[in-house]
Fold these 2 entries.
Entry 1:
Amino acid sequence: MNIDNIKKEFPIFNNKVHNNDLVYLDSANSSQKPQVVIDRIYDFYSKEFSNVGRSVHYLAVAATNMYENTRVSVQKFINAKDKNEIVFTKGATEAINLVASTYGQKYLKSGDEVLLTELEHHSNYVPWHYLRKSKGVKIEFADVNDDGEVTLESIEKKITSKTKMIAITHLSNVTGAILSIKEITELAHSKNIPVLVDGCQGAPHLKLDMQDLDCDFYAISCHKMYGPTGLGILYAKKKWLEELPPYQGGGGMIGEVKKEGITYGDLPNKYEAGTMQTAQVIAFDESIKFLNKIGIENVMKHESELINYGQEILRKNNSVKLIGNPKNKGGVLSFTLDGIHPHDIATILDEDGVAIRAGHHCCQILHDKLNIPASARASLGIYNTKDDLDKLNNALNNCKKIFNTK
Amino acid sequence: MNIDNIKKEFPIFNNKVHNNDLVYLDSANSSQKPQVVIDRIYDFYSKEFSNVGRSVHYLAVAATNMYENTRVSVQKFINAKDKNEIVFTKGATEAINLVASTYGQKYLKSGDEVLLTELEHHSNYVPWHYLRKSKGVKIEFADVNDDGEVTLESIEKKITSKTKMIAITHLSNVTGAILSIKEITELAHSKNIPVLVDGCQGAPHLKLDMQDLDCDFYAISCHKMYGPTGLGILYAKKKWLEELPPYQGGGGMIGEVKKEGITYGDLPNKYEAGTMQTAQVIAFDESIKFLNKIGIENVMKHESELINYGQEILRKNNSVKLIGNPKNKGGVLSFTLDGIHPHDIATILDEDGVAIRAGHHCCQILHDKLNIPASARASLGIYNTKDDLDKLNNALNNCKKIFNTK
Amino acid sequence: MNLKELYQEIILDHGKNPRNLRKTENFNKDAKGHNPLCGDKVHVFLKLNENKKIEDISFEGSGCAISMASASIMTDLVRDKEEKEAKDLIKDFLDMIKEKPELVTKSLSEDEKTKLMSLSGVKKYPMRVKCATLAWHTLISAITNSQEEINTEKFD
Amino acid sequence: MNLKELYQEIILDHGKNPRNLRKTENFNKDAKGHNPLCGDKVHVFLKLNENKKIEDISFEGSGCAISMASASIMTDLVRDKEEKEAKDLIKDFLDMIKEKPELVTKSLSEDEKTKLMSLSGVKKYPMRVKCATLAWHTLISAITNSQEEINTEKFD
Ligand SMILES: Cc1ncc(COP(=O)(O)O)c(C=O)c1O
Ligand SMILES: Cc1ncc(COP(=O)(O)O)c(C=O)c1O
């Protein structure tokens, strides 16, 4: 499959927005879905629907096999050692909550420190904050530098003998900075500290190799990876899934249930309580196949060309200020425009069919640090083109016209 | 819409199973989906997809409106007082975990009692068991009687001055017993005890009126209500959602976020952390419209005819033993067959295209009480007919032939 | 074209050069408002005299053109009004922004009405309605002197 | 028709009248197994003599025809085998049930092989494979004497 005309695989682009072609630059928020994924959901519900894992009839057996196939596909896609290291969740947010809650419950006590970075999304902060409230755990933040990066050194600086968890983003959803996970993990492990990676933006844009990164936990949102909404993945090293207590309790995750006590099921069941997102898991297999067909190297090459081009034209546009200038950057172009609030930009761009996001992008701490209340963000998917970025730039010039600024 | 030929609205029935028409009697596990719901998912992903609540562009605004429309539809469907009493979750299991976790955290202490019944599904037991482990809360079980019912009296008997929560099923997924929720709630409230209702089986089969039932919490799984997988609903009285702490933490549920602390958003955002099941919520509106078009009274009439007919023919079949004989029964026909294990029944029935479930149906405590390791269960949906039940009975006779039993 | 209706001259003017963007000396009522979605913040200061008349009103904050213009216009229109009159005006404005086609208030001159109606462009932009109403909700809470921030619980 | 292959006479016979369904006196090894999906339970008892030969084997439990027949046939075939031979047989059986077309073991007579192969009908019923293998996994754990139940952690 050729990435240069991949747009045609996404039916959304057949539609007009305010009579304009859709220029979708909000993929960091959620990506559009290729036809194959949409079709798979349709076919599954129309011809093959059943719950998984519980019944032994024909439809149930087939659905269970397809469900477990996706687990294997994900395992291969991220090069995990064992398929049972893949746990399906509601989203990356749930995946991080799962880890914070179970790890915190078992291993953290008052005075222990969790090390985050100033780049973190609220989803990788609030769950840890709960442990501050319930257990007196302390939260530290590694500094972001002027280029919008968090370096290995700035993390090292904040590690103390009390640090019991490092939880960091793989790729910032605001500055686009890509963190050196492998080096950070090495450092952390040398001090016996586990590492959780918020891979929400890493997964759609980077080649993933869990055994190489060697992180302990990796959280993914499938809806940002050309997959259905309502599905996420927690990768966790097997020893953690074995050691940690279960998270939600319910059907499917138990061994034996008596009035006096309960035993829990084997992996991965232990962490998949209740009826799961059957259709979404089964359809997500198509997202992975789709990405594999394109080739993740081609995705990375394509997007890095776009990021470079985008930075180039926005830098030429005098009133645009790009946020962050990381050496290793992917996926997003955040900026401000002199004299025009990001919210006004987003509204005006929308009229030209250009969809971006304005606000703090769930990163208030970073925006406080940058001393801006909000920013505008154009974020990329595989379907974007240089033409899309030209249209973005033109639409920004239109903002200036409306606001009479230069 | 006429319920008598409603099968044709469900595309799954155009397919054959082992060359036979599908006789789907596993709806208590998960129901099939009508064409309108499948189409809505397809169209939303193909033409209208965006994340909700975060961006201000055209697609995001439209999606946000549709998402919130479903909340209003659900509110009306269950006659809740306020639309912000409707919280979307991953499923009923998550809904119950949410309540057990937040209520337990704030209000329960060692020695307090949570009162369940012997009918409860593991999803309405394991979350409470966690509080037994973490807080020393005690769990009591109201007795099931020989007819497979739990009466108001058997609940009253187990209430003590230490009872701090009553968590009970609306309709048993094994015996089909419908509990007198309104009376139980009245009794509980007279003693200042809140009531959580596991409405997994209540919601697809009964007319719901939260203000009339007056329960404090009601948990629903949308996939059992002709809706998409991966979606559930927690109804909770507003005062509880205001008083209880948040559950999962992440994007969308916050007010202000600083390094030192966090404020939480208004209802319902406070309980909807992270990217939600956008497509599923939007499609579920169609499930509700579909049910409304048929009329929930017609659903109840149709299903009660089927239950009566099913009981009649199975009683005539000498080797069949029905489980439970509740005066007020809905949705399910569970049974055993002399000399043939339920698992073998399910396998043989499947060959005739008859899909049932065998096992403990996530109710081990009830099966222990009944002193059977497992049972077979035929469960009903609106698409079932008397013909389906005749086919079930014929297939059971086929089992007897294969096993040479009478 | 709707954008022209949204970003009318008067809005752009008030957005860029908001009136009353300062802190009233000796204010005796105030409240903070916050829109978690976009990060807009506003802090409204009031000086009510003994006859419950608004002697001065001002605000501090930052936000988009719509929210700044709205705060600016609001403070202009509300000054010198009785508390009761102000409350009626707020209600009238909020009704208009949400559903009603017109203002019904009699306490404003035609000029003032035009100024206020310039904010009605947001009606076609549902996600922006909150920008236009934030200052007004904050004003209510300043008048009724509820201590909590609008849209914001206490830090946890 | 597959059902006939699954429920062969021999399976129905062993399912209804399982051999060795009792508790070995003076057993010196045992283990419990459990299938959470269907509630099948089995408890295997072994008496190994000083030469590591299986002097007696028996089981208690309840379950579907497949799991009962499997335990019944297994106990029949394994009695009087050396521990090593038994282990090889278990491995051979599990391989056959999961992927291999045939048994490769030489320790069984043709009759015994036929008996064991009667369980191969489950291959076409993936959800039932666990029924056929539960007793065998439990036997492994009895021999290796691991204390935990198969498929079951300690009560929490
Ligand atoms: C009575 C009852 N409670 C709870 C559940 C759990 O619902 P879910 O698995 O959809 O979370 C079910 C269904 O499996 C049920 O029947
Ligand atoms: C870096 C990052 N972390 C976490 C999240 C939360 O993901 P979700 O909302 O899908 O749970 C997002 C996306 O919103 C993100 O960009």
Entry 2:
Amino acid sequence: MEAVQSYQSTSVELFLLIALLLPLLSFFISFIISEKYSWSVPFLATLLLIVSLASSIYVFFSIWKHEPFAAHIHWFVIGDFHFTIGILVNNISALMLIVVTGISFLVHLYSAGYMVGDVGIRRYFAMLGFFTFSMLGIILADNLLLIFIFWELVGFSSYMLIGHWKEKIEASTAATKAFLINRIGDVGFLVGLMIVWAYQSSFNLIELNSSTDILSWQTAASLCIFCGVMGKSTQFPLLTWLPDAMEGPTPVSALIHAATMVAAGVFLLARIHFIFTNQALDVVIIIGGITSLMGALAALAQHDIKKILAYSTISQLGLMVMAIGAGAPEAAMFHLFTHAFFKAGLFLAAGSIIHSLHQAQHHNNDHFDVQDVRNLGGLRKKLPFTFLIFILCGSALSGLPFFTGFLSKDAILTALQFWKGSEFSWRWFMFANGFIVSFVTVLYTFRMIWSVFMGDEKKTINLSITEPPLVMRAPLAILGFASLWFIVSINPLDYSSWLYTGLHAGKHFHFSLMPIISGLWVMLAFVTAYVIRNKSLQSTFLMNNFHLDRVYDTLIVKPTSQLANLVDHLDRKWIDGFIHGTAYGQVILAHFTNWFDRIVIDGSVDGVAGVAKGIGSLTRSFQGGKIQLYIFWAIFAIIIFLIWLII
Amino acid sequence: MNLLNFIFYFLESVAALSAVSMIFIRNVFYGALLLITCLIALAGLYVLAFAEFIAVTQILIYAGGILVVIIFGIMLTSKISGKPLVVEHANLFSGTLAGLSFLGLLIYFLSAQKFNVFSTAKPLPEASLHTFGIELMSDFILPFEIAGILLLIALIGAAVISSSIKSKKV
Amino acid sequence: MQQYLISLLIFTPLIAALLGIFIPAKLVPYFKALTLFANILQVFFLFQIFNSYESNGTIQLIEKQSWITINMGSLGILKAEYFVGLDGLNLPLVALSVVVLLIATISSWTIDKNVKGYFLLLLLLNAAIIGSFTALDFLLFYLFFEFMLLPMFFLIAMWGGARREYASIKFFLYTLVGSIFILIVMIALYLSVSDPSEPGRLVHSFNMLNMADSTRFISNTILDPHNTWMIGPFPARYCAFLLLFFGFAIKLPMVPLHTWLPDAHVEAPTPISVILAALLLKIGGYGLLRIAFPIFPDAAMHFSWFVGLMGVISIIYGGLNALACKDLKRLIAYSSISHMGFVLLGLASLTTEGVAGSVYQMVSHGIISAMLFLIAGVLYDRTHDRTIENYSGLSTKMQSYTVIVVVAFFGSMGLPGFSGFIAEIMVFLGAFKSNSVNGLLHESLAIVATLGLVLGAAYYLWTLQRMFFGPFHLKGGILESSIVDLNKREYIMLIPLVIAAIFFGIIPQPLMDIIDPFAKHFSEFVINSGKSLTLNP
Amino acid sequence: MEILSDKLELIRMSISFFIPELILSIGILLIILIGLIKKDNLTILSFFSLGILVLSLWFGIIQIRQHVLPINLFVGMIRVDGFSGYLKILIDIGTLLTVLMTWRKQREQKHLPEYYALILAVVLGAHLLVMSMNLIMVFLSLELISISSYLLAGFSFSRKGSEGSLKYFLFGSVASAVMLYGFSLLYGLTGSLDFSSFMHHQMVKDQPLFLIGGFMALVGFFYKIAAAPLHPWSPDVYEAAPMPIVAFFSVVPKLAGIGILSKFILTVNIMGQSAYPWQIIICIVAILSLTVGNFSALWQKNVKRLMAYSSIAQSGFLLVGVATFLPQGIHYMLFYATAYMIMNYLVFIYLQQFESCGMHEISSFAGIGRSQPLSSLFLLIGLVALIGLPPTAGFMGKFFIFSSLWESYQLSGQPILLWLFIFGLLNAVVSLFYYLRIPYYSFIKSGESNIKTNILTFENLLGLILVIGVLYLFFNPGLLMGWINKINFAL
Amino acid sequence: MFPLQHFLYLGALLFSVGLIIVITKRNAIMVLLGIELMLNASNVNLVAFNQLNPSALDGQFFALFVIIVAVSEAAVGLALVLRVYHDYKTSVPDELNELKD
């Protein structure tokens, strides 16, 4: 991070506060507004978000490539320590500010159409506003404690939004799972905070950054904080909640579970990159690598359109984390930026498919799972606009040249290339992993688009499907547009553009062959995908995929594993199983402690009572009503006394 | 002295034997008679211990008073039920254990004990009764009076207790 | 009035109770009004207290009247005083008490059985609670401390649920054992210290501040720190500290001395559960902070690892148990155990953050647990069933209620923005830092304790999921018509608590201002005098 | 015979310090006479015995106010001092309350004149016992108490009454025979019946027979205060006796016994120079009494038996005061004795009231908390005081006693004192179980009770006074302790 | 003067025998007799010990009062036995067990 100098800039401060607080205001308004006026909520919320977005843009332009902005106020004091609330805006956070408010605005707009008629619409928009606020909080906060606070709050809003359709049991289960797994990560984050506090007595990022020498606690602290990132950014092994989180409304998936919240982990890693030691970074990149590969492979085997996207998100996040681990936070942030748009676009487009199909189903009283790609096909005629967006964003995701994804992926691959060094080591696997992932990405993206839009119509053939309304199409259009290369770089083959230089002011690594190699690689993947498509049509695609996954599984995750299963299965059976297992274990343990409580502790209390009664029955057993025995016992006691006293 | 010694040991063994045999007899009436024997022997011992007044009182009150009452009691309590006067033993083991251990304990320590003689002055037999009277009315006036009240209370109490029997019978 | 504010606070309910005796039992509304009036008066006095209180780490608004003075001949003079005062430790707790008691009174509005007895006992309990928080004389404290038992016993036993008798006896038994432990130490203590108030004479006073001054111990008494009196193989001061610790830990309650709590909570009527959780448990923590630690700083330092360990065990164990609970109130009761473990952990760290977090946690838990029990009570009032499994999808029928439940649950699991978060994070920071600052607690304690957060999330979310989400249906013969949303009275009870929980979560400064001087002084005092006593025995 | 005339002069002078006892003696005679003459006028009898007790109390108070220094009376047979004077006052007050309790059901009490005469005889014996300085006097007054008590125990004139009476008699006789044997040994060893002179016989202090004699003598006192292991008579006797008598037994003979016990134990201890662990004996007996009393009471269903065990346990607490072997401990013991008397009578007054409604078993108390709230409340206060919870005199009493015990431990370092300390205090927890069973039934269990509610009864008035006493002694123990502290407890 | 110890042994014997009788005999009157024996044991002691200090008659007086007390006890005891006999038709102490725990 750059040397930071705080200065007073009232306008920046003002607009920052507007950008930050308007979503909160939206939360309150949506929450308070009465049932009768609930129709006004989408408008009000969207309006507020526009203003917020506008302020963000203003802030972005005042900050971008300028001095960072910092300000803080006292929060509370304990002993000699001051806890502060503060804002620190540098290039990274300014960029994120745009991403968050921008996508949030688009999602608000989209939701106005998507969620129309939902009974919980006020709650929905309230939580969207609250989420945006919390997310902005993470981005702007100048100290770790504050980041942690907002970190948890986004978890909370994510919980509320995943469980928005609370009558659906799957939704509430998924929400619980999401929050719990996040909490596990957050606990790690908390431990990290404790370590930082114990050794530095400060949470302020600027102060933490000011000590230059690498300290021993940093590895532990950074790894602990990375645990938080694992939870939020769905890194291995805490990645299972995200596919389930797709039970939430699709715009929510777009905003939270694709574009912003899950990327918050990556953002945090970039923001506190200075804490990470080399050892810690090694762990980070390994985790990232595993995650990206697993996500990509799992995505191949999915049938649910949203789950494919979810696994894809996991995979992409893994890539970003790898970039961080490779010491290139700027590459990670770059990919984060591009990914946010194209993935949000994909989700929203998927949402519009679902929306349209649902409406059509509603007309025809037909019921099948509209999210299952096996039920879909040939929709390109009925939903041409959506198809277009899918193509645009999907290409970006696949990393085809002339799309943003290509540039950002290049940046990451380049970073990996430099990071791996010239000597062969384990690092090379990571580098290879990057390529494999990008290869697989193409496969599943292509498969998804193909099976949804190409071929013949299947169950949808009798439905009269129409494109979604304008409020939904507009955001799609914007996002599709934002997937094109010129948004981030004029030169479609060179990522080091205005954005990248803003993220990283120093000298850029360049490996001039990389765009070409990666372009060719992607094309190869594309061809492969196309070839495999035929096989898939012959319904052996899935089986092939199984074999493929098995190979990767034996190569990377568990060489000794004889259980050849899908990564999907691996995911479910092992990790979910593990988490379930621990959950069951916990429940069993809980039951055990409960039993222990009742039997042993209560029992011992009752036992004490029993002993008391026992003593009582002993002492009263001399009280049988026979006077001569009384006398005998008394005399006996006297004799015992006397003998004891004298001897 | 020889004769006196003989009398002393004779009386002592009479007292001891009659007492011990009280344990073994099974007839209450005999028990009462044995007690009388024992008490009379004790009275004799008291004489030998220069306590003539106590000896006399012992014979008068115990032999003449208490035991008559007790015998009456025996008669009364056996008459109604018509049962023989046989007395069973209960708690034989525990009772014997308690008594014998007490006995052992006491004998052991009594024999080990050296008692101090506090004054060597011999009592004057002829003045004894006189002194007794005077002391009773001076030093021991309070116990004397209290003993009177005690007897009164016992009398009244016994009367009330037994009168209630009558009243119930009627 | 200024100098009698605390007395007014204590005696208002007593006077009200006295008046209440003469009101015929038939006039039911009068008792409610009387109690409410007393509570409102207390709130008024509380405001006055805040007006005249200055946060500077000293004890203020002191009232001191001689109470018992007995010449004990060669043993000196026994002197007990009516000695009350407020500092950063007990002012927040007193304020909490006044508010919670007011809410408990409102919550008691539905009591219809033997109203006179109920409200009179409630008033007595009120006075006893405020009294034990303000007393600075050990004997006075003990008086109030024990005086809480009987009203509480009867309130549980007469107005409680099905197994109320068992629960009340258990409550009484446990707490009495604890208070006997305290009594044992109290007797030993007052005979070991001398009060300088009357020079030239040996005065044994119960002044707690005096007891905390190690120079006041009479030389060669058993508890004299400069004397190494052993009881068996243990130093006498350690034994005394442990007795005090266990005495208060029962009240706290600490695992494994906690089993009275779930039973008492489950069986007690709602207002009583509220008081029990929000206030009575705090007296345990208060006792540790006020009595056990300052008076035996050397032993406190020696055993702080143990205290911390027990805190962590409570946190984890309570959480695990809550996970297995089928009864809503029982679940909340176990969560209380878990949360009170944080008090122990923070206290054991003896760092400013830890201690401040500890006190903050007491206040925060007071607010949140009151809310939780009121919530359980709301449901119980409607259906007379608290079995979690018998409900599903309540959120569709009781929307406002669900909102409050979500707020309370998330508040209780320590979500940022609620008071519990501030408290818990302070405790964690303090506990973790302890090793590097004073070497008392190992870092692993704090780390293990964080599992409590996960557990907390687990049981609350699971409960939410089971009871409030999913499709609406009921089991166990609950009538659907009984499921209605909150009424006005319930809003009045709940909303202030919600606001308080959020306010203290976002703006901790006002409360921290009061607590901080105390926490700083406390941790320094215990560490310094503990060290000096251990170094020169 | 100058010596004799001196003695007579002394005796004559003694009379003026003997007024309370004289009044009692004359009262006994007069009441028998009145009983003969006016058999049917029961109220006069009650009034008369009340009058006698009030007079005795009055003179007792005058005595204690006038004579601070101990005076030996009747040639050293008894001694008037503050300690005995104080106990005498307690005894008189206790008896007064007994008479008041009897008054309420005098119609049901047969043989009322004899009944009062016997009560007064017990009081006389108790007075003499606490003043005794001579083994003869101890024996006689103890027997006076005992024999009267045997008779009183049977005054319900029922089957159970006679059974209890006989059992009491048999047990008591054996105990007093053992005590007497102990006396005889002590006499033999010291050559003196005046037990305050024991401490001049330094040579006996380490002789085993002295220990045997002393302990056997103590047996008689333990029996009198119903301390374990000499307690088994008391539940049976209490169950059999009429309620006022039970109350009376649990206070008056006990106070007298503990009075003589504390005098006696300090003399056999010979100012701490005795080679034998007298302190430990008392401690063990205290522990035993607490255990037996409290734990056995857990099982009881009958109210009177419950109170019998309670009184055994309370003897244990009184013994704790003695076990300190400190003057202050004795003072605190007196305080506790006062508190004990008040709270015990408070309980018994109401037990009698409820007994007259046919409640003998604890379970029959169910529901009376509703029908008779005030009485139940007062009963509750009494029981709470017996447990020793604040804010009652019972707490203060225990608190003081255990304070002095701690001090004693601090001085001597005897571990048994510490055990007694902890064990004694924890016994309160056990006692909680059974003491609270009555209020538990009356308030918490619902039951049928169709007793009419009447607040303005004589019992409630009396109860109110005692409740005030119980509370006052908590809130201002200084007043009473001030009086007690003026007592110079020295032999 | 006869050996003091012999008196004392006799006293101890009487005491123990009295005790045995009290505990073992299943007849109230017999028990009473045992009690009398125990009292007399003390009397023997008292009289014997009085020989150690013949100038004072303390022991003898004590013995005298013991006899008086014994009389009262016997009277009361017999009255009680009669009463119990009347109520229970038995004079076996063991058979009186209406009063027990």
